[in-house]
Amino acid sequence: MEYMGDDKFWDEKFASRSDELLGPEKSLVDNIEYFKVGSVLDIACGDGRNSMFLLEKGFEVTGVDFSSRALERLNRFANRKNYTVETKKIDLSDIGALSNIGVFDNIIINHYRLSKEVLANIHNHISENGILFACGFGHKHQADERIRKEDLIQPSDFEEIKKTFGLVKYMENKDDRGFFVTYIFRKISN
Ligand SMILES: C[S@@+](CC[C@H](N)C(=O)[O-])C[C@H]1O[C@@H](n2cnc3c(N)ncnc32)[C@H](O)[C@@H]1O
Hints:
Blueprint: H1 7-15, H2 26-30, E1 39-43, H3 49-56, E2 60-65, H4 68-80, E3 85-89, E4 104-110, H5 116-119, E5 126-137, E6 165-175, E7 178-187
Parallel strand pairs: 1-2, 1-4, 2-3, 4-5
Antiparallel strand pairs: 5-7, 6-7
The structure holds S-adenosylmethionine.
């Protein structure tokens, strides 16, 4: 699905950003201890504020997004610090968007609402005991024309994946930007 705007909207947004990267998501920093050592797929990574944090923590990182400008910025920030990051331009609104992406020890989805169809197959891309971290505007957020109702993460988004994942932690938090949720799931081992 399109989140807040199309690729042109996001390209323009990233092109107009300063040469400084925003800090990582607080709930990711606070909960990094739950992550499995190894690789991370950063879904809708943007210009990589969370990818950079994960690289600094020693993870192997792949970032996917449909904004070329965002991915260029992430590569630039990583090069500056001599980190290697893999980036792929992918439109996540395609049902098969992640079908060839491979398997990771962790997946993060931060400030993007992944479609139920793509989420339904996410277990195929996480190794045993791997972590799925999802954070963003939640169901109790007051929607407006910028953050629309369809952009809000709903508890029902994760019903299907509960067959293959156990919920490790759920958090709600409200600040002057709005209402946020964080879900941390661990893939159940066979
Ligand atoms: C609010 S930003 C979040 C970026 C990053 N995850 C973060 O936490 O800073 C939303 C991101 O979703 C990306 N996005 C929106 N719709 C998309 C789509 N259909 N396919 C791939 N990326 C998309 C945008 O380019 C943008 O980078």
